Amino acid sequence: MNFSQKLGVFCLVAITVLYVYFSFFNKEGFHFPQRVEEKPVVNITDEPIENPQESEQTEKQEIKIVKIFVTDSRGNLRSVNRKCDTSKEKSCFVFAIRQLVSAPTAWEKNKGLSSEIPSNTKILSVREGTNNILIDFSPEFESGGGAESLYIRVHQLIKTSQSNTKLPVYLYINGKQANVIGGEGIMIKQPLTEKSFND
């Protein structure tokens, strides 16, 4: 047997031994290493983190500016602004009337502004219909201050109403339409307009 024959027999024996080993003794079997595809690494710190507080702040909030009328040191009517948050207030008109009755603020008082509407006046109701609005005040609205004060406080209400609605507004005192107010019996034409006191 020459060298090349011996080499062939040796290779054949070696292949047979390897086959038997990997087939019967190596449970994983014989396999060639496979190339593993590299996947891009995602850094989780790069993902946007949702902040619950920021989500709440992004909710639609519309601020509407309403005007109310107070008086200056000379008794002239002056408008001041209030911010009505429509996400909290059902009606910015009702909000304006509440602000009118509680006006002026401490800052406005320091600026010399005041109101002829008695501080103990209560809003009994504000009824907003499709055709008109009815404002019902407690009897304190028409008490004290004399005729000039009554004229001014009604004008505060008229100006505030006209600045915040286009609907006709009617004034009621303690559940009754106020065609006459005060001890002096001042006549008021309704709905409230700039001509309500004209003869």
Write a structural description.
There is one protein chain. The protein has five helices and eight strands. Strand 4, helix 5 (146-164) and strand 5 (169-173) form a beta-alpha-beta unit. With 199 residues, it is of the alpha+beta class. The chain is 32% helix and 20% strand. The chain starts with a helix and ends in a 12-residue tail after the last strand. It has a domain at 62-187. Helix 3 (92-102) packs antiparallel against helix 5.
Features:
4-stranded mixed sheet; two-stranded antiparallel sheet; 32% helix; 199 residues; 8 strands; 5 helices; rod-shaped; single chain; alpha+beta
Helix content: 25-40%
Task: Work out the radius of gyration.
Answer: 43 Å
What is the N-to-C succession of helices and strands? HHEEHHEEHEEEE
As a percent range, the share of strand residues is 15-25%
In the sheet with the most strands, the strands line up as 3-4-5-6
Task: Report the end-to-end length measured between terminal Cα atoms.
Answer: 144 Å
Q: What's the overall geometry?
A: rod-shaped
Number of strands: 8
Give a quick account of the main beta sheet: strands, pairing sense, barrel closure.
4 strands, mixed
Low-pLDDT runs of 5+ residues are 39-49
Number of helices: 5
Derived structural class: alpha+beta
The pLDDT mean sits at 83
